[in-house]
Design a protein that fits this description.
527 residues, 15-stranded antiparallel β-sheet, three-stranded antiparallel β-sheet, 5 helices, 6% helix, globular
């Protein structure tokens, strides 16, 4: 409703109900002849073996996901200058605990904006200022967490118990997940403050936003005393705070009849800190490179074993802490003291940084000359660390592929003063020193095997030619253009320690494959 072109009121309310029933099945497919028309050719002995080993030939599982929500939103605007918006939502999910306080949750959002360009005094600022809007919001939002977390109620599955004789097999029931009746939503309080402004008849447009978030009741694994037969369980175990800044700048640098040049710049900064973590982490989770966390550190942080140097035989030396938190040097004579499953004394680990970038953005330029358009687009990120591939071992064989790092390895006494790459151990070293494999593993996850994850990438270069409209007048063809595009051409900058490995998709899917280059030619015709 609009009243006297002064008061504008919008309201909306509704409800939504969702029910998803999923069925998943699998089959071993014994005897499938893939190269012979996929014709089955199975042997009864295979089924006899499965029966005696108590393994299944196929399996079926069913899941049900149900949600219901009620929501209402309202917006009030005074002369399109001042705007106030409020949203309220009340929802429930069968994936969460049976307690009403856990399964049902109200969420809300309050936002306000001031369109200063609608004010009378703003006319004096034109055309230097085109528009100016100040905005702010505060909200409580929530998420039901990972879809595979289903222990809000006890999960009982049927199974086939193993019996010494296949002839006495029977079916049974077992608890696969203990109940957590208090399992509730992951929640977040968020404060946003922003400004949108334009200059010089919208030749320059700028948007800046600052936010602060407090996440709590985050879902994850926690270690228990094992009551009920389950040591590691899922629950609401963590809290985290974060803040960030987002900046967007769009400019029309040159705008003539025959030539135009526009620029777009995006910059984002985000930092996180885990304030509460009710779980225990072990050493390997912290140093592996996939990212883990401790209280007071960012989400998905990377830690390393302190590397001291190489000894006179080219073996790595490390510095760790004992049970009394005293510094201890570990060399080839006592590699056995390294415990990658250690959970208590981990303060000796060096914090390297987050594995997720804290700075992300892009920079693009578009040049238009008559019917030609050239687009040059660059992306960048910074602030994160990556773990280099764990390629060092105590033994190798002819099937191993060695990276460029091995060129600088220790070879003769004295090399320990010029390189930090360990020697290739000989067979006699394994007879003299035990647990060499632990020493080389520790080297893979030490401070020397960390690289900067920041990069600047030439993301896209494209050239487009559009046929002039004067040539198409009165013809069946109304528009025509051809575009040649190249993406992921090359890295402008990356850390030299990566030795050519791609930092953007580092160890993606368990491998270190570079981002593929793509070349595309597109023809567009309009009739």
């Amino acid at each position: 409703r609009e009243f006297n072109e002064t008061h504008i009121l919008n309201s909306y309310a509704g409800a939504e109900v969702n029910s998803q029933e999923r069925s998943s099945d699998w089959s071993e497919g014994w005897g499938m002849q893939y190269d012979n028309g996929e014709l089955p050719f199975f042997d009864y002995l295979a089924f006899k073996r499965m029966r005696e080993r108590n393994t299944n030939y196929y399996g079926v599982s069913n899941t049900v996901n149900r949600q219901i929500a009620f929501f209402a939103t309202g917006t009030y605007s005074y002369k399109r200058r001042y705007t106030l918006t409020g949203t309220l939502r009340y929802e429930g999910s069968n994936r969460l605990g049976k307690a009403r306080s856990a399964r049902w949750l109200p969420t809300w959002n309050v936002a306000t904006a001031w369109n200063m360009h609608e004010e009378e005094f703003f006319k004096k600022l034109q055309p230097a200022f085109s528009y100016l809007t100040l905005k702010a919001s505060y909200s409580l939002t929530a998420d039901a967490g990972p879809t595979w977390v289903t222990n809000s109620r006890v999960v009982i599955n049927s199974y086939n118990p193993w019996r010494p004789s296949a002839g006495v097999a029977e079916s049974g029931l077992r608890i696969s997940d203990l109940e957590n009746s208090s399992l509730t939503y992951e929640k977040k309080h968020e404060l946003n403050i922003g400004v949108d402004m334009g200059f010089l008849d919208n030749r320059i447009n700028l948007a800046a936003d600052w936010y602060k978030r407090n996440n709590f009741d985050l879902i994850g694994w926690t270690s228990t005393q094992g009551a009920g037969g389950q040591v590691n369980r899922m629950g609401n175990v963590a809290s985290m705070k974060s803040h960030g800044f987002e900046f967007t700048l769009s400019t029309k640098n040159i705008k003539n009849k025959g030539f135009e040049w526009s620029t777009d710049l995006i910059f984002g900064l985000s930092k996180t800190e885990v304030t509460e973590l009710n779980t225990r982490s072990f050493m390997f989770a912290l140093i592996s490179g996939s990212g883990f966390t401790r209280e007071g550190y960012p989400h998905r942080g990377l830690f390393s074993i302190p590397f001291v140097g190489l000894d006179e035989q080219g073996f790595p030396i490390f510095e760790i802490s004992d049970k009394n938190n005293e510094k201890v040097l570990v060399d080839k004579n006592n590699y056995g003291t390294l415990n990658f499953q250690e959970m208590e004394h981990l303060d000796f680990l060096k914090y390297e940084g987050p594995t997720d970038p804290t700075i992300t953005g892009s920079f693009g330029n578009i040049f238009s000359i008559k019917n030609w358009k050239l687009n040059v687009f660059v992306t960048y990120s910074a602030g994160n660390k990556v773990r280099l591939d764990p390629v060092f071992r105590s033994t190798y064989n002819d099937l191993d592929a060695t990276p460029k790092d091995f060129k600088n390895r220790w070879r003769v006494p004295g090399d320990e003063k010029r390189t930090n790459v360990p020697a290739i151990s000989a067979r006699r070293h394994h007879q003299l020193y035990s647990n060499l494999n632990l020493g080389y593993n520790a080297y893979n996850y030490s401070t020397v095997r960390v690289a900067d994850g920041g990069f600047v990438r030439m993301k896209e270069i494209s050239l487009t030619y559009s046929l002039p409209g004067s040539l198409l007048e009165g013809k069946l063809l109304k528009s025509a253009s051809i575009k040649v595009q190249a993406t992921n051409l090359f890295l402008i900058y990356s850390d030299k320690k990566l030795n050519g490995q791609d930092p953007e998709f580092f160890r993606s899917g368990g491998v270190s494959a570079p981002v593929p280059k793509q070349f595309t030619c597109t023809l567009r015709l309009g009739f």
